[in-house]
Amino acid sequence: MGMFYKTLFATAAITFGTVACSRNPERVAPVTDSAPVQVQPVPKDTLPNTYTVQNGDYLWGISYRELGTRGDSAITAGVKQIQNLSNLSLDGDTHMVVNRELVPGKDGLVDLIYSGQALTIR
User: Fold this and answer.
1) Contact, 110 vs 102, CB < 8 A?
2) Is residue 21 part of a domain?
3) Is-contact 51 68, C-beta < 8 A?
4) Domain extent at residue 106
5) N or C of the chain: less Cβ packing under 10 Å?
6) What is the pLDDT of residues 54-85, one digit of tens each?
7) Domain total for the chain?
8) Residue 14 domain-assigned?
9) What's the rounded Cα separation, in Å, for the pair 69 and 48?
10) Segment (H or E) for 15
């Protein structure tokens, strides 16, 4: 049985070595020493002021993605900003269904938005 494992180990080592060493150096892209690329932030005045709601969107995600807010308090502030600028009614502040009816929410944040709805975000 010992010879079996030695043969298995030797075969695995040879296979691994062959695969690892069989790189064709001509196919590898050459590395050039160039200056690092500088990423410039997009000026806020060039960003769009409106956003059209897509299927599956929700205000927290829009605040995160479109306004760049990070952290719960910043995202909440972004949601409130979108609500105010878009004149969204707190009738859309629902967060659960009870007996097949939407129950009003208590957090003051609109939950219901619809695909195709245009929102003012800035």
Assistant:
1) no
2) no
3) no
4) 49-122
5) N
6) 999 999 999 999 999 999 999 999 999 999 99
7) 1
8) no
9) 16
10) helix 2-21
- Residue whose token pair is 């070595």: 17
Q: What is the Cα–Cα distance from 1 to 93, expressed in whole angstroms?
A: 71
Give residues with Cβ within 8 angstroms of 54, minimum separation 6: 115
pTM for this predicted structure? 0.58
DSSP string, 29-89: PPP---PPPPPPPPPGGGS-SEEEPPTT--HHHHHHHHH---SHHHHHHHHHHHHHHTT--
Give CA–CA dist 62/60, Å, rounded.
Answer: 5
In a domain, 113, yes or no: yes
pLDDT band at 115 (very low <50, low <70, confident <90, very high): very high
